[in-house]
Amino acid sequence: xxxxxxxxxxxxxxxxxxxxxxxxxxxxxxxxxxxxxxxxxxxxxxxxxxxxxxxxxxxxxxxxxxxxxxxxxxxxxxxxxxxxxxxxxxxxxxxxxxxxxxxxxxxxxxxxxxxxxxxxxxxxxxxxxxxxxxxxxxxxxxxxxxxxxxxxxxxxxxxxxxxxxxxxxxxxxxxxxxxxxxxxxxxxxxxxxxxxxxxxxxxxxxxxxxxxxxxxxxxxxxxxxxxxxxxxxxxxxxxxxxxxxxxxxxxxxxxxxxxxxxxxxxxxxxxxxxxxxxxxxxxxxxxxxxxxxxxxxxxxxxxxxxxxxxxxxxxxxxxxxxxxxxxxxxxxxxxxxxxx
Length: 340
What we know:
11 strands; 45% helix; alpha/beta; 340 residues
């Protein structure tokens, strides 16, 4: 049954933030819930099926609340739409919980998945964050590391990642150690520099040994006490490297292990240490595994669609390959010589 419901606008600033520009946000909500939205001077009307109208109004109310905190973008609107569809609209208030980092910069989780990931890091000694590119795994982990350092919960931040080339051979790299590993660790440098409030503060912390950035191989033989340790691109570790890394955990420390299992650059016959560890450590107390999804992507909205398209194509390729292998096995059976 189609109905229409009107909502009075009592917060004009929030209304302007959500609907004051072009009609993109209106169209996004209309397409998401299958409704029609008419905006007036002091009210808006939503028309459509009863359940769809209720869901749309629930999302609009949540977005008005969220818009008081920060400017809204497509990602935040899609995150709220996703929460409403999953019956978790009450979780919108969780998106308003923030982390304050360098020079008063405030970082908010921009999706329910990111909020769950941040909570897992705060409440566990070891957290695995698994998800596609652009879900903020590294950025949020570094933000929480800077926050922990600022609050004297740890004495040091250690960032590391395996030095594995992404499908291309770089050959001999000139220079000292820092220059050789710089291309692999650059994403960590960038996040840390921004979140610490600029290159000057970041460089001072590097020089004082408060921040350490190193290849994974340099973790061997160490015990890391009162440190916030982040392993990035963990899908490119071997089983042996992952075990070595996890057993570096010392008193008063936290570890965050991030990776995207769809972007493994290891040789085909080598098992990813990330995949292996998640299976082995499932159910172990004080270890959390958070899986981020396409709806948690916070880069350009097109990134989410690109990832979905590649994922679909890869699944179809695997199905075709499995069908071909099954057909070959069947043919082999038919052609096998009879036993004498």
